[in-house]
Input
Amino acid sequence: MPSHPRGTRPRAPYPDIAAPSVPRQRNGRPRYHRARARRRRTIIAVLLVSAALLVGADLIRRGVGAELHQPATAATGAAPSATPSSTPSATPNATPTSAAPVLTAPGEVPASGPGTWGYGETQGAVLGTAGTLRRFKIAVETGAPQEIAAFAAKVDQALGDPRSWTGGRTLRLQRVPRTASAEFTIYLATPETARRMCAAGNVDIRVNGVPYTSCRAPGKVILNLTRWMKSVPDYINNGIPLESYRDYMINHETGHQLGYGHELCPGAGKTAPVMQTQTLGLKGCVANPWPYLNGKRYAGAPAPR
Output
């Protein structure tokens, strides 16, 4: 038997205590290595998911947020406003609250014409509610810048107004076609033609040698085309619409046809009578195209002949 130094003789292992056995996987690796690897993978996965969430949140913040709040560019257009504008944008169909009155018609007015006529071929409604029916025709000189239908409509509107001559309920008026029987004709004539027609009825419409006013000759109410298109200074300077001056022309000259003479302005600041020569100046009165006001005949003192 081999000899051993004192105190160095090996001690036999305890027969009843075996060395711990390390469980092994099929590939021979210990189980605790497998658990540790699993924990490592779990930690890495958690870290990757967390990182992905952080990156995603940042991208969302940078991307979507930038889309909502980026300034306007040529590519993106205007950025939406966070608050509504305090000034609403104008709408295409907005109507002005106060349009300036039309004082004169555009375009040039021919000084003369051929003296031939286009007549109204339609019949208008009876204007007025009571009294004798008196019929008239209309005619527009060839080449005048006024459609016959538009002229007819304006004459009907002016004479059919309850403030016109029918307002007294003593007469009614009706526009009839050229072929019908009528008491008088309302002509729209160039200035030179109007001058000749009025002179034939012993009326001189010239002012400073220029055919300026309108007139009435037997069976003829003659309206000067220049006045119809361009009105007169006192109406224009007071901002009175051209349509109102046309009402005056029609009612004044028709008044002569109905037997009324010229009347005077009753005083400064007062309403002008329709039979005042308002074309030659208002004389301090206020323009008025109507013979009836508030249901009553409004007249001034007769003008000297």
